[in-house]
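Q: What does the assembly look like in three dimensions?
Context provided by user:
Components: three
Sequences:
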Amino acid sequence: MAIVELKNVVKNYGGHKGSKDSANAVENFNLLTEDGEFVVLVGPSGCGKSTTMRMIAGLENNTGGEIRISGRDVSAVPPKDRDIAMVFQSYALYPHMSVFENMAFSLRLKKTPNDEVKRRVNEAASILNIEHLLERKPRALSGGQRQRVALGRAIVRQPQVFLMDEPLSNLDAKLRVDMRAEIVKLHRKLGVTTFYVTHDQVEAMTMGQRIVVMLDGKIQQVDTPQNLYERPNNMFVAGFIGTPSMNFLRAKIASDRRALEGESFRFKAEGARGTALDTHTANEVWVGVRPEHLRYVEDSGHGAGLENMMRGTIEVVEPLGAVTMVQVQIDDARVTAQLDSHVQVTLGETITLACAGEKLHLFDADSEQALGLEQPVSEPLSAAV
Amino acid sequence: MTESRLTNTLLTLLTYAVAIVMFFPILWMFLTAFKTEQTAFDIVPHFLFTPTLDSFKLALAQGNGYWHYAFNSALSAVASTLIGLVLAVPAAYAMAFFPSKRTDFTLVWMVSTKFIPAVGVLIPVFMVYKSLGLLDNIWGLTMLFTAMNLPLIVWMVYSYFKDIPKDIIEAADIDGAGTLQTMVKVVLPLALPGLASTGLLALILAWNESFWSLTMTDHKAATLAVFIASFKSAEGLFWAKMSAASVLTVTPIIILGWFAQRQMVRGLTFGAVK
Amino acid sequence: MDSITTTQPVHSGKAAKAQRKVASAPTRRLMAPAVIFLFVWMIVPLVMTLYYSLQNYNLMMPTMRSFAGILNYDLLFSDPTFWAALGNTLLLVAACLIVTVGLGLALALLFNRTFIGRGAARTLAISPFFIMPVVTGLIWKNMMFHPVYGLISWALRALGLEPVDWLAHHPMMSIVIMISWEWTPFALLILLTGLQSLPEDQIEAVRLDGANKWQEFRHIVLPHLGQVLYVVVMLESIFFLTSFAEIYSTTGGGPGTATTNLPYYIYLGAFFQYDIGSSSAAAIGAVILANIFAIFLIRFVAGNLNAGSQR
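A: Here is the predicted structure of the complete assembly.
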């Protein structure tokens, strides 16, 4: 168990100027974990999340900054001496060794006494319910079982830090959901500081105590799942977190600096968002609305004239049972709305959608940064950003 | 299938015929080895005859005796293969798992030495060996076989190593294994089938090597290539004996080759076929 | 020991030292034995060959050794036998390549069908590859090619044709037949593996698209085999360029110079005329020829490396 600190960590592959390797793969990464925290690194592929994890593991050097585990700068320490364990996406089990030997390998290398090895492997196996598999070779195991063995191999070492690099992405959907819960349970039981890399924001939201959203080697936001959802820092985070993605509409700011208008919609900025617009110089702004915050409004004929409403033609209808997804053409944007399934809509119909004012998100038209973020009600966990 | 059954059958028969034609000289050599010299050297070929082992007795006694040459062939082939593997495995390991500009360059360089024909180095090797007393010396010959096969061995081992996922090496790294431990406990066991087929191919090539044997050895270190070349001027009189000697020379390696045919190919295709 | 060039500023001396350890295994030490071995046994002699080629040096007159400049090369280029040997080498390589690759491809297609006894038939067909070249020479020269007692002559007579003295009248063709007999199995084996790695769905797709057998072969099979063909051609070139034993044990380079290729020419010069200087010059010629072929292989290998690092 340990506190992990990353201070101005940089990774540069040292490519020639102008080549695609010349940019920093990871840039000024700062993070301070709590002891025993479960931190998820999430972002699209190539965002630097895996590289960051591999630097913590020592599989790659950080070309700048410091990585501290329990206060010790490990930047120059080889992987085996960092007291970490890693679970690989491909599981990376040793194909020629039995499950038992796979799990025992690191202990054997440390010349651990035989009965101690046995005790620890059996203990880990019983935690993961794989005692009956110990004599098998990895190729005789199912994907889910291999996953457990990979976890077991990490547990056996009793490391200070767990690193998990997309460990569930090779499993089928059902198993993935089960293993998700199981890993969380495991973490709660062992209480070991864990870094978890994934590109799947649902995985990130359900598992992480804190989530680091990355893009192009840079941290976009470090926050709790709830805060990421409710108070995204910028349009990328807003669009990345939540399914289906947040809708964005380009709006003109009216002269009263409150009304936000398009041809077929009209919103009103309230509270902190409204105040933010007073000092905002631009004439346009992005308005973000989550599909689940849109409501169907019985057509009264006034349509877009009212506040916080939009009006457009239905282009796609997707009944999912509990809810119905509709895509509506609003000006030049496609807006997705999640409607109750009892609402009867037909393709090509013109409908009106409404959204509560406090659910709106505003973003700067150029920088795409959030405007008028309200302070969260509860203090966020200490973020060193 | 759009092919008619007739075409299909004809193609199968054609395939059988081709296989038999390709194999026929070898079959004929085996048959002749069991003939008397009179039936072997006849204007009408004999397919049916009473087999005799007389020619084998004569062939075994040829020159310094078959076993002398066979021992030299076996020793030089096995030793050169083992030395080649011992040299190649660490090099291929570095190239496959720690690739850099330098390792890439070294690999390309090594493969390119395969393009230095033996005659290109024959004269200095001969002169130096002569002054060092390595002429007609089995270890001198073994080293030449090693040099001849090393580039191929490095490449094949490299291509087998490349197939081992890098994750596994990293897992071993995190588990606390050093370079040597990773190589011995993880990489070698995984690459064992590949190493075996590489070794078999090197063994076959070394066993069949004739150029260096014929130029660098005479009596003491002479291999089967020299043994069999002594029948060069047989001219009809000793066809059965020559065939018997040939059978003794090729049989071990044919059996090895049959055994290893599938495994050999993949490494040899330079990774072009998975 | 190992140094890696880091363009990034490093923070402290201690960190810098250890950071290297993390990044690079001792690759230099791992490669050194193999590199040194090849250097000593291939590169050093090669340089010596170059040196000898500039010397007046005949083992018959070992004391009369002197610097010759390009004299040996002058003599070499004015020696018609050298040019004949060069021509023979190229002819041999070209003919054997055409025969082995053409036949090998045809046979690979035949063997790629499913039929009873395929394994056994394939094993028989590839057996010649395992035969020692000297044995090949002896078997073919005597029991196959013999103008009176050879099997081919017998077969020709049985068909009412005139037997041929193969080695005397068609010496180069005989050599090509022997070498092709040995190496067609190699091409067959590797091309067959290539064919078997062709994904079934590609064939099915092109059949659904209405392609006939030839179009299927031309547009799907052949492109798929491209890389494999390349490998076959390159590896065979290496061996064909250095063909020796088949000639040594049959024609002895004759009749005249009809089957003298470069290796045999150099062998004769060094071991029968004891002329170290001009044989070395010829050897350099052989190396240059081989390297013209090598350029292509090296480009292939280097290309393969890049492909590997991008995966």
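Follow-up: Chain B touches chain C through 106 residues (CB under 8 Å).
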